[in-house]
Write a structure and sequence with these properties.
2 copies of one chain form a homodimer.
Chain A lengths: L3 H13 L6 E2 L8 E2 L4 E2 L11 H6 L24 E12 L11 E3 L5 H9 L3 E4 L14 E12 L2 E8 L6 H13 L7 H8 L14 E8 L5
Chain lengths: 225, 225
């Protein structure tokens, strides 16, 4: 199974007639979805920009859909120039749904959404998120700024929306795993600040599964979204 | 690939310890979904009724989910005793969605929903629906009563909800195919009555693809839902 990046590169090679390297704005691990991924590539192909989406969408795999294409400054870099990224994590409560099996994390324990929100508020702002970074990830700094962390109830679904200037490896999934432990009563909401301040991955909760996670938006330019 | 019926029968054989025959209320051709299918089976197995769903859902394939189980009169027959069935057909307008690729029929032509409703109204009631029956289907009578045929717009989705005392083979999909031809301007809304009265399959539109169709509800008892 090729990665999404490889699949898009193959489509672009067919469209442009030459090997094409794709740079994506945000990592999406296996099983993770994206509704707002941004990529950039350089090409000497002659396809008009306004036909790029239709051409990409006419080639398999059809599970990858291009929604918009624009010509940009040659210096544009989808990853380095991004000023914020947003992810949504989707939780399904209660009985299983065959339709959402690969699109939401099903949690059967009753969840205290108020406690979840109280804990989430303790993560907003500029902090060291080392406790919410996958062990073994090599990064220069584990400081990030979370601009927004909101929880929306929509019937049996919970949407956890997070926007930050950047994310550490598995950061959203570890935050969600910790929030669910708090919401199910395994830990108290007040513990969240201490977990964050520990800077110790072992203090946080389990990593939530990938299939509930969506990269929803990447912004450029203005420093705050 | 086993049918859904075969897959459920295999699950039941594991749970009850004996080969078990399943009777389903409504046909779901390959690609068609069901959110409200009803089945019945007889067993001498000793599993308590309240544990049947959990047991079924603990076995693969997980794309089949049991939502409720009840002990019924030994004479109950899921198909013959049904007094109405409801199907929903889902149309996705505009750009493709990787998430709905197998769950909605994508139509790119602009659709005149008012014309669609005007045409749909001409099908409500007790009529001979032979024009909307797959060629070659062998049935005693092609007369059915449509109790309800409503069209709901929900952002980019169109939901076509049909309730009838029974359905002919591919009836909903042929009705939807005809409605889409009317909504896209290929035919006029007024033509629907003549199409119905022709009792000729060739007069109706193309059969809409299976993956937009859902069996949503089966009712028993009261003659009208």
């Amino acid at each position: 199974v090729p990665t999404i990046q490889e699949a898009v590169e193959r489509k672009l090679e067919r469209i442009t007639g030459a090997p094409t390297v794709v740079i994506g704005a945000g990592r999406t691990d296996a099983g993770v979805h994206a509704t707002g991924q941004v990529i950039n590539f350089r090409t000497e192909g002659t396809i008009p920009t306004e036909r790029v989406c239709t051409a990409l969408n006419s080639l398999p795999p059809y599970s990858i859909v291009a929604r918009d294409a624009r010509e940009v400054d040659p210096a544009f870099h989808a990853r380095f120039d991004a000023t914020s990224r947003s992810y949504r994590y989707v939780i399904l409560r209660g009985e299983p749904s065959p339709f959402l099996r690969r699109y939401a994390w099903r949690v059967t324990d009753p969840l205290d959404v108020a406690a979840m929100r109280e804990a989430a508020a303790q993560l907003i702002g500029r902090h060291d998120f080392a406790a919410f970074c996958a062990a073994g990830a090599e990064v220069q700094s584990t400081v990030r700024e979370i601009y927004r962390l909101s929880i929306v109830e929509r019937r049996r679904l919970l949407w956890i929306d997070v926007t930050a200037d950047g994310f550490l490896h598995s950061m959203v999934r570890i935050i969600v795993g910790t929030l669910v432990e708090i919401a199910s009563g395994t830990r108290s909401a007040e513990a969240m600040t201490a977990i964050r301040e520990s800077r110790d991955r072992r203090a946080a909760g389990a990593t939530a599964p990938p299939h509930g996670l969506y990269l929803t938006r990447v912004t450029y330019g203005a420093k705050r979204p």
